[in-house]
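To whoever is on call:

I kicked off a structure prediction for a single chain this morning and the downstream step that reads the tokens threw a length-mismatch warning. I double-checked the sequence; it's 394 residues and nothing unusual in it as far as I can see. Pasting both halves so you can look.
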Amino acid sequence: MKLPKGFLGSAVRAGLRKKPGLDVALLVAPEGANAAAVFTKNLFQAAPVTLSRAALKKSGGRVRAVVVNAGCANAVTGAGGDAAARRVQQRAAELAGCPREEVFVASTGVIGVVLPDEKVRAFLPDAFARLSAGGLEAVSRAILTTDAAPKVASATFRHGGTTCRVVGVAKGAGMIHPNMATMLAFVTTDAPASAPLLSAVLKEAVDGSFNAISVDGDTSTNDTVLLLASGKAGGSRLRSMDEAAAFRAALAKVCGELAWRIVRDGEGAKRVMEITIEGAATEREARLAAHAVATSSLVKTALYGGDPNWGRILAAIGRSGARVSTRSVSLKAGSVVLVKDGAPTSYREEAAAKAFARERVPLVANLGVGKARARLLAADLGHEYVSENADYRS
């Protein structure tokens, strides 16, 4: 798959991690791109997060190059980590022929280790030499850590008589939870859109995708979603949310697909539960209930085993802090109604087990106290997750 007009990509191996393969990715907009980003809300924000946030502000939302490394998060590394990130940014700016603030940097990997930036800087010239419109596949592989496979999604939309493309790439499999997940995502489009509009549409798209997934309840230090628009598709500038309706739909589709792939790729995951909370008093309480179910080890292990142990789900909702009518609450898995009016129904156990054995298990709980709702995708929890994370640094 090619990148949208106005973008080039490549990747190289700089030797940042033990296992073989690409580990430094490069995205370049030769004539620049308008940009917007959202970042982790973890207080221990990695050096690339703080540096890139400041750069975006200084450049007024303009980006020429994006440098991403795997194998080292460069988080909780103090002044040494800050300096390493700045040196990578400066070297990329020299090669791209742009101000330093137009270079966006991102990292993923082990926390507490300063980025060996000399390795990244040594291989950046090769990365620039390899740039091509077909470099997306290399980029998608270079940013992976514990992922089982690359994650790429695309969509098109019509604007002013021309076809615009939206193409996104992401990584993430563990340490995944809203605000955001342990993930990096880079979405490019050739649509003509201003930085302020990009900021608005990105927040909307992230709230419905990357901020609505969970694998293990942990929010990382490095989470970043970057949206870039080259404007090379032509046509009049998109200026308002109404004008950008088709763009918003395409962006939501791409982010939603990437979010699904992240949860499905949850370390060792067999199943994904699609949790919908209805009938909540407020949207905040609906989210509280959904998050409680998504992060319950008992619910997640039952899901892994395909066990319709619905009592665990209601118990999680009951401790979530959300208001619930115990006499009106209902719960269903797919088409199987498990609980109605606060009591179990006469469902067939075989039907419930079949619903819980699917790759994607839709769960709908109605709290019976209001009209607010929330939706969340969450992975199960099995043996492979423990093995992966017990041996992560070895």
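Update from on-call: the warning came from a stale cache, not from the record. Cleared it. Sanity check on the structure: The chain has a mean pLDDT of 90.
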